[in-house]
Design goal:
- The complex is a heterodimer of chains A (252) and B (221).
- Chain A is an alpha/beta fold and 252 residues long.
- Chain A has a domain of 170 residues: Rossmann fold, CATH 3.40.50.
- Chain A is built from 10 helices and 10 strands.
- A 6-stranded mixed β-sheet of chain A has the order 6-7-8-3-9-10, with helices on both faces. A 4-stranded antiparallel β-sheet of chain A has the order 2-1-4-5, covered by helices on one side.
- In chain A, a hairpin with a 2-residue loop joins strand 4 and strand 5.
- Helices cover 84% and strands 0% of the residues of chain B.
- Chain B has one domain: Phosphate transport system protein phou homolog 2, domain 2 (Methane Monooxygenase Hydroxylase, Chain G, domain 1, Up-down Bundle).
- The model of chain B has no long low-confidence stretch (mean pLDDT 94).
- The chains are: A alpha/beta (252), B mainly alpha (221).
Chain lengths: 252, 221
């Protein structure tokens, strides 16, 4: 099951650039939360702070508190442990090109030391079913490489890979921006189903997508969280003029 | 900046104001016809209806295209929804003008007598409501829109007074029943124009503030 995420006074820097400023918010468990905002507004940095990927950049640092359930992400756990609890899907599908579909899906598990063949088989089937890809690839699991799939299939395989480690939170950074409308619909349907089991945070430039899949939406601008509210409120009658200007295209 | 989209919204607004002008003119003409019993003005009102209907369809189509093609959000989405609803109300105002003109034409078959009802005053008040609601739309002024609600109470009272005065007249002088009934229906038509103006004002408030004030505190006997 997913866990809620509590963020308190989160600040982040790249070198001397203050990219996130005093972010406070509560992301509810087992819901999809969308983050919107113009390029460079800090939404991707925010997501990368949630699973401690931000700190992989040597000039980056972050302060503040991020709690996933009872776990203080920056104090109670190692980055490796956090990334097992927090799956991530990126804008472009990133399969390991030389690995089969099967090996792609279990790569995270293997990294965490799982070797039991029966467990791995079961995990591959469960994850691919959850990612709505099982029926399309079940006969080619070990024959085909992950890179031989279509873009939409690759992205669903990457989602399966993220789900294979049984995370509590799924972070998605523009997961459908490189996909055609049919593949996009599949990813959105998937988000709709997955949010009953996982807490999903999705960064998107596609506001209709945010409106379709997320219960709550946050609007970032210049490193600040301008507004966080129900998606319904944000897209029909936002409180802040800057949110309204952005979503109606009057911005800039 | 979505320049083309915002230009389209301006065009939609202009078209709706054109529709408003036609509907207002139809009401004015129908009352002029009542005052003068000039049947040629009645004809003018009847002939203007197809143009109003055509414009209603054009505005709806334009709004539908913008919804489908531009996926508007927030204030733009509310604006387009308001335009669709105001459009329907203006078309109904046009219909009421036609109804008045038809009644005036029917009254032409009877003697022109003084009736205990000030139809031109009622018409002036109903038209003023439409004008104020549309001015609020032009200026995006929710407070101005709210003032229309108070005017509606006055129109309702005048319509009620007309009902009692004319039904008494029918009882006292049954030979005046046809004229009285026609005047009663005209008063009712004008009261409906006031209702449409109220709807328009509610839509302006929805557009500007995002608040749905329809049926708020409405008490019907």
């Amino acid at each position: 099951m997913g866990v809620g995420i509590l963020v308190e006074n989160l600040n982040a820097w790249y070198g001397s650039t203050h990219t996130l400023q005093d972010i406070n918010l509560h992301i509810p468990a087992n819901h999809a939360t969308a983050l919107i905002g113009p390029s460079g507004c800090g939404k991707s940095t925010f997501v990368r702070c949630l699973n401690r990927m931000h700190e992989t950049n040597p000039i980056a640092r972050a302060t503040g508190v991020v709690k996933m359930g009872d776990v203080d992400v920056y104090r109670d756990a190692s980055p490796v442990e956090i990334r097992r609890r927090v799956g991530m899907v990126f804008q472009r599908p990133n399969p390991f090109p030389t690995m089969s579909i099967y090996d792609n899906v279990i790569s995270g598990l293997k990294l965490n030391g799982f070797r039991n063949r029966r467990v791995l088989d079961e995990t591959v089937e469960r994850s691919l079913r959850q990612a709505a890809l099982w029926e399309e690839v079940k006969d080619d699991l070990k024959k085909k490489s992950g890179a031989s799939l279509s873009g939409g299939q690759q992205q669903r395989m990457c989602i399966a890979r993220a789900l294979a480690v049984d995370p509590e939170v799924l972070l998605m950074d523009e997961p459908a921006s490189a996909l055609d409308p049919v593949s996009t619909s599949k990813i959105e349907d998937l988000i709709f189903q997955l949010k009953t089991q996982y807490t999903i945070v999705i960064v998107t430039h596609n506001m209709q997508q945010a409106a379709r899949v997320a219960e709550n939406t946050g609007f970032f601008l210049n490193g600040k969280l301008v507004e966080f509210d129900s998606t319904h409120k944000i897209f029909t009658n936002p409180r802040d003029k800057r949110t309204e200007d952005y979503i109606t295209g009057r911005f800039g | 900046m979505r320049v083309k989209f915002h230009q389209s919204l301006d065009e939609l607004k202009e078209k709706l104001l054109m529709m408003a002008g036609m509907a207002e003119q139809a009401i004015q003409r129908s009352i002029e016809a009542y005052r003068t019993r000039d049947l040629s003005i009645c004809e003018l009102v009847l002939r203007s209806e197809p143009a109003i209907n055509r414009l209603e369809r054009e505005i709806d189509q334009m709004a539908l295209d913008l919804l489908a093609m531009e996926q508007p959000m927030a204030i733009d989405l509310r604006f387009i929804l308001s335009v669709i609803r105001i459009n329907a109300d203006l078309e109904r105002v046009g219909d009421q003008a036609v109804n008045v003109a038809v009644r005036v034409r029917a009254m032409g078959a009877f003697a022109n007598i003084d009736l205990p009802v000030d139809i031109p005053k009622l018409a002036e008040l109903a038209s003023a409501m439409v004008r104020k609601a549309l001015q609020a739309f032009i200026e995006g002024d929710a407070e101005m829109a709210q003032s229309v609600f108070l005017m509606d109470d006055q129109v309702d009272k005048m319509n009620d007074a007309a009902y009692y005065a004319l039904s008494s007249l029918i009882k006292e002088q049954p030979e005046l029943t046809p004229q009285s009934l026609n005047a009663l229906i005209i008063a009712r038509n004008l009261e409906r124009v006031g209702d449409h103006a109220t709807n328009i004002a509610e839509d302006v408030i929805f557009w500007v503030r995002g608040a749905d004030v329809r049926h708020a505190g409405a008490v019907h006997p």
